What does this fold into?
Amino acid sequence: MKEIILKSDTHRKKRVLLIQFGYNDEVKNHLKKLKNILWSSTLKSFYTDLSLEKIRIVLNHFNTKKWAVDIQQLNNYIEVSKRKQAQNSHLIKELPKDTATDLHKFRKWLSQKRLSQNTVTTYVEVSKTYLRYALFKKATIFDSKTVEAFSYDYIFTPNRSVSYQNQFISGVKKYFEFHGYLYNEIHIERPRKEKKLPLVLSTQEVKALIDVVMNLKHKALLSLLYSAGLRIGEALNLEIRDIDSKRMLIHVRQAKGKKDRYTLLSPAFVELLRIYYLSYKPQKYLFEGQKGGKYSATSAQKVIKNALTRTSIQKQVTLHTLRHSFATHLLEKGTDIRYIQELLGHSSPNTTMLYTHVTTASFKKIQNPFDDLF
It folds into this structure.
C-alpha cells in the first residue's frame, strides 16, 4: 500500500506543496515525470509550487496509478482558495492606470491626515477592492446601490468578518470624502461587533510557552509581550532608549490612537534583556532583523506558532493572547482596573472591563449548588 501525503509548508520564504511518502522507487520515478518537481534536503521531501491547479495535477498524476493520496492537511487551504476564487470572480484583474493613479493620490491624502500607516494601507486596500468590483460590474462608483451590492457579494455571501465589514465602510467613506461625496447620504448601518471574550492563558501555560523557546531573541520577545502587556506593533517599534531601567518603566511612543504611555518593566525581564542585549547588540530598535531595521511581525508570529507546537497547549493562541493574559493576571492579583487601563493604553474603561468577565478570582468565591448535592 503506497502512503502518499500532500500538505503545505514554507520553503525559502515561499508556500510550497509537499509530496511525502516512504522510500519507494516506483512512486519517486512516477512523480519525477511531472514538471517542476524538486527535492528539498531541508524539508526531506519533494515539493512544487502551491496552488489549486498544482494540487489537481499531482492528484490526477497519482490517480493514474490508483494510489491513495491523503490531502486532509490541505483541506483548509483548498477551502480558503476556492472562496477567494469565488470572490475574485466579481473583480477585474487589474485597475486602469488612471484609477491606480487616483488611488495613489488617495493614499497621500490619507497620510497627510496623519493616520497611522496601517490604517492608510487598510483604507487603500478596501477601496481598491471596491473599485475593482464596481468597474467589473460597470456600475456607478459613487452610488449607494453599488456599495450595497458589493457588501452583499463580497462581504455577506462569503461570510467575511464584522471587523472587515467595518474596515470596508470606514475605508470607502474616506474614499468618497476624498472625491467630495457625502457618504452619509448612503444608508448602510455598521454591523454590531461580536462581543467575544478574550482568550487567556494561565500563568503556568505562559511559563510553559516561554520555557520551550531556546532562541534568546525569541524568548525575550515573548517575555516582553507578556510582562509589559504590549501589542506586537508596540513591541516591534520599541527603541533601546525606550527602556528606562532606573525607573523600571517602558516608554511606549505613539501607540494606538497616537498616544504615548508608560508600562511596567519587570525586574525578571530586565535580567533576560541584558543577556539578550549583550548577545545581539541591537543598534536602534530593541528587536531587529538579520539585516537591521525593525523585526517583522510575520517573523514574530512564526515564533509563537513554533513555540506552541512544542507545548501541550490546545488553545488558539496568538501574540495578542499574551497581552490579554497580562491584563487578566493583574486583575486577579487585585490591581485596580484603572491602573490596568493606563498600562494597556485603553481610551475607554469599558474596554478594560472586558477582563472582569474572564478572571477566575471572583468565580472562586462562588459556591456551586451542584456541590451541595453530594
User: Anything to note?
Assistant: Residues 17 and 50 are 5 Å apart (CA to CA). The mean pLDDT is 87. The beta strands are 4-11, 14-21, 38-40, 45-49, 69-70, 243-244, 249-255, 259-264. The two ends are 55 Å apart (CA to CA).
